[in-house]
Amino acid sequence: MSMMQEFKEFAVKGNVIDLAVGVIIGAAFGKIVDSVVSDLILPLVGAVVGKIDFSNLFIVLGTVPPGTASTLDALKKAGVPVFAYGNFITVAVNFLILAFIIFIMVKQINRLKRNEPAPAVVDAPTPEDIVLLREIRDSLSVRK
């Protein structure tokens, strides 16, 4: 079997297609969570803590050229090395929220699976010749 044929069999299997759909939906879901964190949660946390903008928390690790603004974007554009721990906080909060949402989803799916009734086992009808053979056997065993 050639490598292309093996790849074709692998690529058209249901698991690979399901995985691709999952990755695409996961990427879109990640953008939603990122927006929830950066646009809704972090501003609320910043308001409670004291108007902190997490995206601009950083430590300058090099010399700042004269006339460069002391914002993270300006320093990065100027090529100044910065330790941007505020961005890390944002990403960590994104991860925690995403992990919690996935945990809730998996928990609910497992709960729904446990509540589903087991499929009823339907016995296949016994073929007529087997029924006749059993009747003959039973009538012969009574005569003994």
Tell me briefly what this model is.
By secondary structure, the chain is mainly alpha-helical. It has helices at 3-11, 14-49, 72-77, 85-115, 128-143, and strands at 59-60, 82-83.
Salient structural properties:
144 residues; mainly alpha; 2 strands
**Basic shape:** elongated
Give the proportion of residues in helices. 55-70%
Q: Reading side by side through the largest sheet, how are the strands ordered? A: 1-2
The low-confidence parts are none
What's the story with the biggest beta sheet?
A: 2 strands, antiparallel
Structural class: mainly alpha
The helix/strand order is HHEHEHH
Radius of gyration, in Å, reads 32 Å
Our count of helices gives 5
Please render the helix and strand layout as text.
Elements: H1 3-11, H2 14-49, E1 59-60, H3 72-77, E2 82-83, H4 85-115, H5 128-143
Antiparallel strand pairs: 1-2
Helix pairs in contact: 2-4
